[in-house]
TrEMBL record:
Family statement drawn from the similarity comment of this UniProt entry: Belongs to the short-chain dehydrogenases/reductases (SDR) family.
Top EC group: oxidoreductase
Comp. bias regions, Basic and acidic residues: 9-22
Keyword Metal-binding: no
Pfam families: adh_short_C2 (PF13561)
EC number of the protein: 1.1.1.47
Protein name: Glucose 1-dehydrogenase
Region of interest called Disordered, as start-end residue ranges on this chain: 1-27
Length: 282
């Protein structure tokens, strides 16, 4: 039995959660147990989708968060409200992670507000359907790379001097890094680059005691979906997984919590796949 979503689309990236029907499920399932008590987290793309679910879950576990987002003010304010409802604190900053100066300002503001930095989560992304490889615009491909991989590197560069032994860097890759996606060619390339970044950075920072891992979501119901695909494709989204449906942000967030807390202290350079059984077998 398969279960898709109502046909819908949005006309701008990276999409707005407030306009989605049904709304994504972002609330944690279990009570918090203090696994991130006192931790300071910076997250990009934290206003909606997976980023919102992670922010709420981390707040429930005791973290304080600095949340970067592009320009989705309504979504960001709602995420801050939800974080605060869990007893957390949220610093919001709008801007473009594809610009190094913004990443530097964002991290500096987080450290000024909270006094230090323990966990960096690179999560911001954008994607565009490309029907013909010959028609991919140079500036469009550069835009995707700037957000999806340059921004990750810029954030690492800005954060690394503040991370201490036991710190964490968690990157958001994707199943398309492993199986490809013919209509999301440049997006898939960036997600593959994130896997390489994770593996390389984990080796570079191992002697400093900073752990670097990634999460590779499969089809997850986030604003990026109606913002990227035509309505008929949105209606079919995720129905081809073995579980017959798309995943929800709340079903991905616990993977980030595992990588952020002490449970994963002997794990680095790895990627956790949360994809409804869609990971390729070869």
């Amino acid at each position: 039995m398969t279960s898709g979503m109502p046909a819908q689309e949005q006309d701008r990236q990276p999409g707005r959660e407030a306009e989605m029907r049904p709304a994504p499920d972002y609330m944690p399932v279990y009570p918090g147990s203090g696994r991130l008590k006192g931790k300071i987290v910076v997250i990009t793309g934290g206003d909606s989708g997976i980023g919102r679910a992670v922010s709420i879950l981390f707040a429930r576990e005791g973290a304080k968060l600095a949340i970067a987002y592009k320009d989705e003010d309504e979504d960001a304010r709602e995420t801050a409200r939800l974080v605060e409802a869990e007893g957390g604190e949220a610093l919001l900053m709008a801007g473009d992670v594809g610009k190094k100066a913004f990443c530097e300002r964002f991290v500096a503001a987080a450290v000024e507000r909270f006094g230090r930095l323990d966990i960096l989560i690179n999560n911001a992304a954008e994607q565009y359907v490309r029907e013909d490889i010959a028609d991919i615009p140079e500036e469009g491909m550069e835009r995707v790379f700037r957000t999806n991989i340059f921004g990750y590197v810029f954030m690492v560069q800005a954060a690394i001097e503040h991370l201490r032994r036991g710190g964490r860097i968690i990157n958001t890759s994707s199943i398309v890094a492993y199986r490809g996606q013919p209509q999301l060619l440049d997006y898939a390339m960036t997600k593959g680059a994130i896997v390489a970044l994770t593996r390389s950075l984990s080796a570079r920072l191992a002697d400093k005691g900073i752990l670097v891992n990634a999460v590779a979501p499969g089809p997850i119901w986030t604003p990026l979906i109606p913002a990227s695909f035509p309505a008929d494709k949105v209606a079919e989204f995720g129905t081809d997984t073995p579980l017959g449906r798309p995943g929800q942000p709340a079903e991905v967030a616990p993977a980030y919590l595992f990588l952020a807390c002490e449970d994963s202290r002997f794990m680095t350079g790895q990627t956790i796949h949360v994809d409804g059984g869609d990971y390729p077998s070869s």
